[in-house]
């Protein structure tokens, strides 16, 4: 994929560029100009799974056709991954020709749709001036937030703010009682089940609050559907024309991944069988307990880090800490010398986590957590049992 990125970068530089040849500060849009929302489908990389949004300003009378893209970031900034993990990564507005933009997405085999906006001449000029102002070096950077301030929400807000003496009507209600997590799930069905498990472990209860249709538009695909029905207050007519497919998807579909639920239920049955043999033979299976407990402890550290030490909005109040508990480092060290009260406390936490996977309130826990919690519980119970029953050598 690095080779593909390099090819795209090099060939994009070779594409003819309207931007370089024009001084947009002195441009006045003609009557034939229009603005549209560009929505791009999913790509092969995980960070492209949820699609992309941009704004197109086209004026064929003066040879202007630009795409404004709020989803640009720089891999070369110092400590990129650390900054991203802290939730302090700056994204920026970039500007390119429509031709080069379409070439890039065609090369990646991703679908592209366009929705022309029904703006007045003044509103269109407002939008153009706002975008050009945002493109100035001192304004183009912003603090990225996946749910509340991203490439789609920026497009949504720019369109809303350019309207003159009118506003968007009440949002459509095609879906109700959806949360941020529900919207994410639409993009991770069947092919990205392991990524979904990772997302569910990282995101906290804030991700499960019921959202308004306006908040749904953090997702590019959902925003496209919303703009198909949104109306303006003065005429009650749709703000955008129906979406038109500009590029069909040509990339190969991702293969369906093995279900984490199935794998962890198989592992649970294997651990259960080993535990029963352990009880029958009087074995000591420290070789099994220590790696499991240490892995769970590491997961707990990640959850704690995302909760307390980052700026990510939806990683707070993460109830995965009930099963991915920091207490497991204590169990890994002490094993059968662990305090009974601490073991009982952790067993209670595991039970609550299993209940949450069934009721999904106040936080949705991934269903794969149920067999994981059972594995941890049976190993803790085994430790309790060995305290009461003298063990025999292997």
Give the uncertain stretches in residue-range form.
1-22
Calculate the terminal CA-CA distance, rounded to whole Å.
50 Å
Beta-strand share of residues: 5-15%
Overall body shape: elongated
Order of strands, widest sheet: 6-4-3-2-1-5-7
The total tally of domains equals 2
User: What is the alpha-carbon Rg in Å?
Assistant: 26 Å
Instruction: Write down the secondary-structure element order.
Output: HHEEEHEHEHEHHHHHEHHHHH
The percentage helix is 40-55%
Sheet of most strands: 7 strands, antiparallel
* Tally of separate helices: 15
Description:
The protein has two domains: 2-171 and 212-247, no CATH class; 260-387, no CATH class. The chain is 46% helix and 11% strand. The chain contains 15 helices and seven strands. It has helices spanning 2-14, 18-21, 80-85, 98-107, 121-134, 151-161, 180-186, 193-202, 213-216, 220-227, 260-281, 286-308, 327-334, 340-359, 369-388, and strands at 34-40, 52-59, 64-72, 90-97, 112-116, 141-143, 244-247. Helix 12 (286-308) packs antiparallel against helix 13 and helix 14 (340-359) runs antiparallel to helix 15. The protein is elongated and about 85 Å long. Residues 1-22 have low confidence and may be disordered.
